[in-house]
């Protein structure tokens, strides 16, 4: 027997405590019987045991050299490409964005110095004849397709229309008539000018039209100037736009000093206002 010291509330006392050999001598051995049914462990225990045994330990990211560069760059305001820990420096894309900035500074010259500024200029001439040629060319040479106004010039410097194109009352007789041009009122002797460059194909007295000048501008386009008091050009003569070809009169079937302008396209009279 072994005596072990025990402390009680009343004071220190001693009690007998059997050792392991004594207990084994007094116990009656009992045969072990295998259990017929297996006892299932709670699912919580399995899950906990699995977690404890098999869940891998969380790997903390290691701060490598590339991450340190990225961190420093972010603090300093620089922009770098993102690099994973496993990448080498050589794997970074070689092409980087390059931004060019241009600074413009004001330049002040001393007050006592003389500053000369030269400005280069480019001028070109595009005449009305070029415009007419361009329009006719764009129409494929067919003047009937030309619908651009302003390709012809007015025959007088001062424009005062007294009768327009179309049907009107006959000024010299009964009934109505088709007025195939525009009448410009002006004092007799006023210069009449060519509406465009061309070749004179008629310059003579022409019955009710009086003294008449007709100019061929090409591509089926012609103009005529009627009731003139005097003719200033001859057949076959080349004239320029704005050149004087006659003087205002009242010859032929006329009721006063004026010029009767006609625009003829492929042998047919058209409204001159669409061309002026």
CATH class of one domain reads: Mainly Beta
Shape: elongated
Structural Rg = 58 Å
Counted by DSSP, the helix tally is: 4
The averaged pLDDT comes out at 74
Please estimate the helix content: 10-25%
User: Which homologous superfamily in CATH is the superfamily of one domain?
Assistant: Glucose Permease (Domain IIA)
CATH architecture of one domain: Distorted Sandwich
Cα end-to-end separation: 145 Å
Overall structural class, as computed from helix and strand content, comes to alpha+beta
Q: What is the number of E strands?
A: 15
H-E order = EEHHHHEEEEEEEEEEEEE
The unreliable regions are 78-87
Largest sheet: 8 strands, antiparallel
Question: Which fold name is given in CATH as the topology of one domain?
Answer: Glucose Permease (Domain IIA)
* Fraction in beta strands: 25-35%
